[in-house]
Amino acid sequence: MTSAVLDALHAAVPRDSVVTDPDVVESYRHDRAMTISPGHPIALVRAGSTAEVRATLEVASRFGVPVVTRGAGTGLSGGSSAVDGCITLSTERMRAVRIDRAGMQAVVQPGLLNAELKAAARAEGLWYPPDPSSYEICSIGGNLATNAGGLCCVKYGVTTDYVLGLEVVLADGRTLRLGGSTVKNVAGYDLKRLFIGSEGTLGVITEATLALRPVPPVPTTIAATFPDAVRAGEAVAAITASLRPSALELMDAAAIDAVQRVTPMGFGSEVGALLIAQTDADPAEADVVAEHCRAAGAADVVVSDDEVEGELLMGARRRAITCVERLGAVLIEDVGVPVPRVPELIAAVADVAARRRTLVPVIGHAGDGNLHPLVTFDPTDHAARDRAEVAFDEIMDAALDLGGTVTGEHGIGSLKARQLGRQLGDDVMELTRTVKAALDPAGILNPGKWI
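Above: the chain sequence. Below: its structure as tokens.
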């Protein structure tokens, strides 16, 4: 059947869009969740248009071949990892962007990088707020597929908050227009939100109309060090109970150490946690944040309106995952809890790390309760890997016990599929399968992920 599928693909899309070279296909088999073992595709299709996406899905539907859609490959949960016998559908060539200055909107294709959209918007005096830590290398399509958040979402919201309309291709090749370009639109079910965060299991997003905002003022940055991460968590709970900073990020001692091995930041071994906050509204907010930090036991608090200094600190936070990855293999958590329970989650992670004798640096968007414990282990040590996998599950259990979620922004993918049912429950899982069956009755879209 493989040869028949390839013949059909070559007839349906330009020949240079279909790749079977093993060395090239190999580099598209997985995303950054390298602890996932991906399958082997029969072909890679690098689509250049909605028409090519539609044609690819029509072929896949005709032959019952799985399709795994892939953006920039920066995902952290194995959402775009290949399955055996699939077509890997890459949207990286679909990079068009059009800015509507008067309407404060952007119409973009999914392969456009988040940073490229930000640059195009800024050239028109506008701003696209969602900013994952990987914004320089992640694609808008991937952001939509996982409903990505980022550093500023504590105040400005996540990807879905900026989506006005979508163009989506279903498994059978039907192309839908959902939503539109109006600020308000309540005609019918809000079906576009079904696809945001669906990780390619319901359809392929080929275009998005996104809301833009005015460029915000240069923020004031507050950096506070604490003797331990739990006290930093207590400061987070107090800050968010009184105001909404534009960013509120946390790094524990292990994360700080990993970053300092690559880029010295000048922090001593006595620093147990670093809280980085930014405010871009009333300048007095910075003083309120600083006071909450001191009240929670901060050892040192620095307030700066130097934009370069602020970006250096935020840049160190953005690099934390790549720095921790130098220490070994990493199972990257993405748990979230109600913000007042952040201190309890931090304590629970420390307990799991100690009991399982596993290094678990903690970073995260503390201002909205979304933390990334980074379960780190030596991949050549089987016992260490086993302990790490148990720790990974126990941290998710701890988040659920605190009324939280197993993923705030990275998605379920392959890494967390076994945990989804516990969070959602049997009735919601049944409804989820019903929706999946209605839109993808043959189950060819990203099979094995979620359900």
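The domain at 104-214 is CATH 3.30.465.10 (Uridine Diphospho-n-acetylenolpyruvylglucosamine Reductase; domain 3).
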